[in-house]
Design brief:
alpha+beta; 3-stranded antiparallel beta sheet; two-stranded antiparallel ribbon; 5 strands; 14% strand; globular
Length: 125
């Protein structure tokens, strides 16, 4: 099962990207994202909404940044409201094993992507 309902919630606000992710996006799209330089190779970029969001679909889905890959709203159906806190998402995970398994797989894939693009988290799977 896929718990992404293409609502576009993950494409609003601010995200942290690595300079490697920004370079990859520029190389593939010609668009250079700019933001506030943070520690190390991290940059905080305002995306409200993301310039790559069209009709609630990501036009750079295959190269979307790690922050986009990690985002989860805790919705179990398209009519559910997005959860506002990680605590609310954890409650959904406790009550729905299928969602928990999906989220764990999504986060492992996101962490692996992130490690290949400058995040340097603990190695997963």
């Amino acid at each position: 099962m896929n718990f992404c309902f293409r609502c576009g919630e993950c494409c609003k606000g601010e995200i942290r990207l690595t300079r490697e992710e920004i370079s990859l996006i520029k190389e593939r799209t010609g668009v250079e994202l700019r933001g506030i330089q943070l520690e190390g190779n991290k940059v905080l970029v305002k995306v409200n909404p993301c310039p790559f969001l069209e009709g609630n679909l990501c036009t750079i889905y295959d190269i979307r940044p790690c922050a986009c890959r990690m985002y989860h709203c805790g919705r179990l159906s398209p009519t559910d409201s997005p959860k506002k806190t990680i605590g609310e998402v954890r409650e959904v995970m406790k009550k729905n094993n299928e969602y928990r398994l999906w989220l764990e797989q999504m986060q492992a894939e996101a962490a692996a992507w992130g490690n290949r693009h400058g995040w340097n988290w603990r190695k997963v799977g």
